[in-house]
Amino acid sequence: MKHAHILLLSIVLIAVSGCNNNEDNTNQSKQESDPVLIKNHQFSLGTEGDGEFYKYKSLNDIGTYETGPVVVNLERVEVVRGSFNQDYSEVYNVEADETLEMINFHIKFELNKEIDNFTFNQEHLHVITDNSEKIEKPNELLSSVVHASILKSPKDNSERYLRQFSFRLKESTAEKIEKATLIIDPPVDSNGDLLGEEIEIEVDFSKDNG
Predict the structure, then answer these.
(1) What does the pLDDT average to over 197-210?
(2) CA distance readout (Å), 165 to 16, 20, 77, 124
(3) CB-based contact 110:159 (threshold 8 Å)
(4) How far is CA 170 from CA 81, 94, 188, in A?
(5) Residues 118, 188: contact at Cβ < 8 Å?
(6) Could you give the CA distance from residue 123 to residue 162 in angstroms, rounded to a whole number?
(7) Phi and psi (nearest 5°) for 179?
(8) pLDDT-derived band at 79, boundaries 50, 70, 90
(9) Could you tell me the end-to-end alpha-carbon distance of the chain, in angstroms, rounded to an integer?
(10) Minimum mean pLDDT among 12-16, 117-121, 153-157: which range?
(11) Among the listed residues 26, 24, 85, 32, the one whose alpha carbon sits nearest the alpha carbon of residue 57
């Protein structure tokens, strides 16, 4: 009987321990998925900038890609949700305290050779989300500018500056989006001929390392 009591006690302790571990794992998973208030942000999306935004997902150091003479260094992708302060809502052409959900791509561009008379700009960038929402181009007021004359500038000038390209989500949400594909059209020459191949970069936010 004594051995039976010891065995029963052991089973109870193991069960309680398992419950605690499951609860700890649940809490840890919840903490990992909780959005983080952005305080400092290179492109003014933090509390010390133009508004209040929360980061839901992010990835760093995605990779380097080439299409013709254009080199694309995709340094960071982030999914954010928030709003701009009253003072900045008019600047960005949104309602005061309007909630925005966005994917921001932080990219450095450069050329791999000298070239004249070509066209490449931010309208060459498109996004498709995992629920098939297609966003044709970055929001022009929320995004940086890139064009041929910038890319041809000296390397110690603006060529290698980090730029942000923001895509507003309409059919997707910052909480639910799991994957997105950045599509980059190749540059074209003065005759309209393609100078490279289309780039497709799939971003999987389950691999969040930000």
Answers:
(1) 92
(2) 50, 44, 10, 11
(3) yes
(4) 12, 14, 30
(5) yes
(6) 17
(7) -140, 155
(8) very high
(9) 56
(10) 12-16
(11) 32
pLDDT value for 188 = 97
Q: What mean pLDDT do residues 8-12 have?
A: 49
Count of residues in the chain: 210
In the chain, the amino acid numbered 121 is N
- Residue that is written with structure tokens 């008379």 in the block: 117
The C-alpha angle with vertex 174 and arms to 169 and 172, in degrees rounded to 5, equals 40
Residue 3 pLDDT > 60, yes or no?
Answer: no
Percent of the chain past pLDDT 70, that is, above it, reads: 76
- Which top CATH class is 35-207? mainly beta
Instruction: Please name the amino acid found at residue 69.
Output: P
The rounded Cα 112 to chain-centroid distance in angstroms is: 25
Exposed e or buried b for every residue in 107-137, given b needs 16+ CB within 10 A? bbbebeeebeebebebebbbbbbbeeeebee
